[in-house]
Amino acid sequence: MQLIDGKAIAAQIKQEIADEVKQIIAAGGRAPHLAGLLVGHDGGSESYMSSKVKACEQCGFRSSLLRFDETVGQDELIEAIHRLNDDDSVDGFIVQLPLPRHIDEQAVIEAIDYRKDVDGFHPINVGRLSIGLPCFRSATPAGIVMLLERAGIETRGKHCVVLGRSNIVGKPIASLLMQKANPGNCTVTVCHSATPNIKEICRQADIIIAAIGRPEFVKADMVREGAVVIDVGTTRVDDPTRERGWRLCGDVDFEHVAPLCSHITPVPGGVGPMTIVSLMHNTLLAAKHEIYK
Amino acid sequence: MQLIDGKAIAAQIKQEIADEVKQIIAAGGRAPHLAGLLVGHDGGSESYMSSKVKACEQCGFRSSLLRFDETVGQDELIEAIHRLNDDDSVDGFIVQLPLPRHIDEQAVIEAIDYRKDVDGFHPINVGRLSIGLPCFRSATPAGIVMLLERAGIETRGKHCVVLGRSNIVGKPIASLLMQKANPGNCTVTVCHSATPNIKEICRQADIIIAAIGRPEFVKADMVREGAVVIDVGTTRVDDPTRERGWRLCGDVDFEHVAPLCSHITPVPGGVGPMTIVSLMHNTLLAAKHEIYK
Asked: Whole-prediction pTM value?
């Protein structure tokens, strides 16, 4: 069994990005600039946003954080988005989700200029990803693809079973892995809450991507010997042995599944760090105008 | 075995659309207006386009056909598209594909205002379909979903195997059938040219959607008793017994597969007529501004 060290791979890619940024600046260019919009003071959102700001520093990016009170109106938020759309000093920006209930998330996402939508949530980027055209790929699926590539895992002709059909993980990773591309060319099965025989289907998988959001859902009897298991789950579960009282728990029963696998990602330290790196990668692509002119 | 009569279902839906158009006109509205752009004189394209014009007549729509010489420049074509985008008398329009090689099809598709893109090929419509938002669904997958619905086929919890990963059939039908919706809620597997064990996977399917473009590819030993088989194939094969010298051949070995099925679509007369009806349905939705304001 080989552990896929997402933390180490992420660190390496950040170093590569930082090196490229140095070259850009040495050639007279300016640092890529990522802006983030944060509404309210949710603990999880604060923590994700500060990780992104930190990653920007590591990559040599400029970052800006725009904070809004939890009571901000949708119109005010969308006006701020329009200003960022028009601001040539900003290469890409993200709105930290979830937003308070009184705000229509989809309207906010669609207000973002798709050419600056480095989270890849705008329908144009989602559509182009499905068609197989260059686009900003949403961060988690893009991170999984980079992870498979860097870990040297062959995907062509493999049966990949995706657990979960969310718009930010399940659907786009299924799209990416079925493309005529490398990584890609997988036979892809998408399972979800309405699938009656998940165990039986998982047992056929060469690659399992678990993104169902249920702690330790994937048990040893669902995984065949030699499978590759990518665990996207990050549920907080109570853990009185930790000072903070909780730990992150993946969708895979790691202890019992890992011995069966050829490769497996841990939680934490697997997909998580790659998600942030994908965002950095998209921001670099935006600064270089590689996807859209 | 029950034959799914796409021709009869299509005729019924066209009648329903025609009835609604009469009501719109009786209430002082105008007929929905579909425009089509046709480049060159390819036999297949001419034939598809004239079927669409005829369907417009049956539905009580106004139709306009804009013809261009095969040597038309891309800029000229895109200018014509911009005029249609701006023409309030046109509710929706389509560009008959394929286009001559000197024209970039994707650039042409993206020039269409997505609010008039009744073929559903613009990335915004593709993306919204994947996310599960209201959109113009591309015609063939939308037709398949209507067919399943009208034939009373339960999809929830069923395993649907899609053969083919084209942008106009395989990928969008996979997207539609995995949605949390009805029809939908299928476990979906997408197989293609890089899938090594198609037979084994097909034998697990409750529903097979064959869109691989290889005549009679699906044989009896690939289908389990009681499966639903939807045949999207329409390859022209030589047939000296026909006056015109060819016949349409599906992707399914109908003679041997049909006796095993609970339901099956014939070729011709299955999915084909539904594809045109979907286009009519989208045009009606466009005229009523039901998807986009």
From this structure: 0.97
